[in-house]
What does this fold into?
Amino acid sequence: MKIAFTTCLLLIINHFTAFSQDIKPAVNPDKPTLTWSGFVKAEAMYDTRQIVEAREGYLLLYPKNVYLDKNGEDINAHGSFNQYAMTARLTVKATGPDIWGAKTLAI
It folds into this structure.
C-alpha cells in the first residue's frame, strides 16, 4: 500500500512540476534564432490486484475474482504497474533576418 501511495504522490508532484517554460530571449533582428518547445506525456497506473481489462489494458473493467492455488493463496492478489501511452511533441521555431522588408519565419 505504501508503494502505491508513493507512486501516486510522485506522479502528482511530477504533473505539477513538469510545466513547459517558454523563455523569450532578447531578439536581435539580424541574427537567426531557434526556439524549442514541446511536451512529453505519459500515462501510468499501479493496480494492487489483477484486473479484467479490455482494449489491451486501456479500459479497466473490474478486479478479478479470488482464485486459490493448491497452497490456498490467491493468485490474483498481487499488483501490477503498467505504462500505457506516451506522447511527445517537439516544435522548433526559426527566425531569420528580414528579406526585402518581409519577416522570415519557419516552424
